């Protein structure tokens, strides 16, 4: 008998299966349980056997049934595989090639992943690759493009075959995974230019005299006019009877004996004889495509650059900013994020005081300049910046990324400079050089504000021997390995390279994603383009400068409007101008609670001279009906009181300037 559940054979009936543990009571009284010796009449026994054969399966039927069910389950499992294969997508790499000199070379840092179908053709792959590359590279040149293999050949057929290109066929031929396949797109102009230059190269074939005798043409002997090496001996050749020696274009013929006698250097100098150019031929310089051919114009001034950028501003349309002096940053962010805001519109700024009352005065330029000055001051202290005072650089901040603060910060700087406001004057020189596309990088350990990292770099800098340096490298291996700076050293001088590489990673490379977004903001009003074209003039606008305002600069900046010469008022005005010059000197020397920056802010709404210059030019006027100074920041005019003594003049100036913030109150 056998178990109907698992098929295990038994010699006699048992109540439970020893293999699967199922109950076998259902077999009691059947042919399997009773066997052929079961009691009963033969007729009844035969009928019982016939009946059991009709109702109970045999062991072979049971195995066949189980096999069919197993195949059915397998077919259910694999039925969707072909559909998945049809919808399968793979990832390859797409790079960019450009002509460098006379060759096509891959551009570093431009490789991007591309998800595509394995059955894609060359034309479809080219279209998708061009779209992908243009999406992530705003500076990509105009098409059309061609799709190239890594060996710079055009993608038409699968290499080594006549079959049209498909990604799946190429993968089979090359034997690599899809993720390791890299194809390139290249401008058709660069591709054809590289072919032209490669085809124009002359080919020099060197043969012996015995080989040259097989050619049938007259022999032309060429002797250069001048030699950089001693004059080689002339080769005397005699024509064999019935034969004439032939010289193919670009072919050099030497005798068999000379091949053995002449030194390799002599052969080399003969082959490389100089090509003598006539004096009347013009020499044409061909610049490398990747070279930065634009030369900075030294005849243009900073104010001219800003003036050219400001031509895009439409003064007939305005973007409104409602700014509270208690929270300048919040109002600025709301204004820049407003859907109606455009950097090409003029700015209309309304200030409110601490009580929420709008300050009197129309914005004809003064409130805008003061707002931009306050904005640059608040921007300096935002958490997206790190580093010492005056040398701050961007750092990654997850919350700022979600709020797109890096883009807004870049746009704020561009708008401030182009709209007549000040530059930030707090960015690190290394950051600004990177933004301007320059390779100059000269950071120091003092740029790191994090104590643990700064101390680790100082330990590396202070290492006095190779053993001490290696010990420091192992001690801080995790930190250095994260930056890709951990390596084997053999000289103590290598510590400078390790520290420099880490500083570049810390300031630039690890923050590359937010730097790109910051550059997008700086591109407003084409300011980033101007920065890259004129770095010498525009970099100081962004960087910290040690130069401070001087009293002499402000004295020369404000031109006085005098009364007619010979009048009594003119005498008082001349005396007041002297008081004004002494007051500026006291502010410069710290003899007054007011600084020169406060004086400039009082008169123009700016704490520093803007890169665009002041328009209109600052003027100095006089008051005979007020004891305190007054100013019109829209006209860049300061009005001085006509007082009898310098002591009174100074005290009134200090009081008026210190209590003047707000428009309509100065």
UniProtKB/TrEMBL annotation:
Gene3D superfamilies assigned: Hect, E3 ligase catalytic domain, Hect, E3 ligase catalytic domains
Segments of skewed composition (Basic and acidic residues): 231-241
Gene Ontology MF: a single term: ubiquitin-protein transferase activity
InterPro entries to which the protein is assigned, alphabetical: HECT_dom (IPR000569), Hect_E3_ubiquitin_ligase (IPR035983)
UniProt protein name: HECT domain-containing protein
Active site: residue positions: 634
Domain of life: Eukaryota
HECT domain sequence ranges: 347-666
GO CC aspect terms: nucleus
PROSITE patterns the record matches: HECT
Pfam family, one: HECT
Residue span of region Disordered: 31-54, 228-250
The keyword Iron belongs to this UniProt entry's keyword annotation: no
Keywords from the UniProt entry: Transferase, Ubl conjugation pathway
């Amino acid at each position: 008998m056998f178990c109907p559940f698992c098929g295990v054979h038994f010699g006699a009936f048992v109540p439970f299966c020893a293999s699967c543990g199922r109950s076998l009571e259902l077999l009691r009284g059947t042919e399997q349980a009773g066997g052929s010796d079961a009691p009963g009449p033969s007729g009844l026994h035969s009928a019982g056997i016939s009946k059991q054969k009709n109702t109970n399966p045999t062991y072979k039927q049971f195995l066949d049934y189980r096999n069919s069910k197993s195949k059915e389950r397998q077919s259910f499992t694999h039925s969707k595989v072909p559909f998945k294969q049809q919808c399968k997508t793979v990832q390859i790499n797409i790079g960019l090639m450009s002509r460098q000199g006379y060759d096509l070379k891959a551009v570093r840092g431009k490789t991007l992943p591309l998800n595509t179908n394995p059955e894609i053709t060359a034309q479809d792959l080219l279209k998708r690759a061009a779209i992908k590359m243009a999406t992530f590279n705003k500076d990509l040149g105009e098409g059309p493009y061609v799709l190239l293999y890594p060996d710079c050949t055009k993608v038409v057929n699968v290499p080594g075959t006549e079959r049209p290109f498909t990604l799946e066929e190429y993968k089979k031929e090359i034997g690599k995974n899809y993720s390791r396949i890299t194809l390139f797109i290249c401008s058709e102009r660069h591709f054809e230019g590289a072919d032209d230059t490669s085809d124009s190269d002359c080919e020099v074939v060197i043969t012996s005299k015995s080989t040259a005798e097989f050619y049938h043409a007259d022999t032309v002997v060429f002797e250069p006019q001048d030699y950089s090496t001693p004059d080689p001996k002339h080769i005397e050749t005699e024509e064999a009877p019935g034969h004439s020696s032939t010289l193919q274009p670009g072919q050099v013929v030497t005798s068999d004996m000379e091949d053995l006698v002449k030194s390799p250097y002599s052969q080399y100098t003969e082959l490389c004889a100089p090509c003598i150019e006539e004096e009347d031929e013009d020499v044409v310089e061909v610049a490398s495509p990747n070279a930065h051919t634009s030369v900075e114009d030294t005849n243009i001034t900073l104010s001219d650059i800003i003036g050219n950028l400001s031509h895009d501003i439409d003064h007939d349309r305005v973007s409104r900013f409602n700014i509270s002096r208690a929270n300048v940053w919040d109002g600025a962010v709301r204004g820049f994020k407003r859907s109606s805001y455009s950097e090409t519109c003029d700015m209309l700024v309304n200030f409110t005081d601490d009580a929420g009352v709008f300050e009197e005065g129309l914005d004809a330029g003064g409130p805008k300049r003061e707002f931009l000055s306050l904005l640059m001051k608040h921007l300096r202290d935002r958490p997206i910046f790190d580093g010492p005072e005056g040398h701050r650089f961007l750092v990654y901040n997850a919350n700022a990324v979600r709020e797109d603060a890096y883009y807004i910060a870049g746009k704020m700087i561009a708008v401030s400079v182009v709209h007549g406001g000040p530059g930030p004057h707090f960015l690190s020189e290394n950051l600004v050089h990177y933004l301007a596309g320059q390779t100059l990088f000269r950071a120091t350990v003092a740029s790191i504000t994090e104590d643990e990292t700064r101390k680790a770099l100082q330990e590396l800098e202070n290492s006095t021997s190779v053993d001490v340096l290696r010990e420091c490298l192992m001690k801080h291996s995790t930190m250095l390995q994260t930056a890709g700076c951990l390596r084997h050293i053999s000289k103590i001088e290598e510590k400078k390279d390790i520290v420099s590489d880490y500083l570049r990673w810390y300031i630039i490379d690890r923050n590359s994603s937010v730097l790109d977004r910051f550059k997008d903001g700086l591109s407003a009003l084409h300011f980033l383009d101007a920065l890259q074209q004129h770095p010498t003039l525009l970099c100081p606008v962004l960087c910290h400068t040690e130069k401070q305002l001087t009293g002499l600069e402000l004295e020369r900046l404000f031109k006085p409007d005098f009364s007619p010469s010979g009048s009594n008022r003119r005498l008082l005005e001349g005396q007041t101008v002297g008081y004004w010059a002494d007051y500026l000197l006291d502010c410069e020397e710290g003899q007054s609670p007011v600084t020169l920056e406060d004086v400039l802010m009082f008169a123009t709404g700016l704490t520093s001279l803007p890169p665009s210059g002041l328009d209109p030019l600052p003027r100095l006027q006089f008051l005979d009906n007020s004891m305190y100074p007054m100013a019109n920041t829209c006209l860049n005019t300061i009005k001085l009181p006509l007082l009898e003594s310098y002591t009174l003049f100074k005290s009134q100036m200090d009081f008026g300037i210190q209590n003047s913030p707000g428009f309509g109150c100065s």
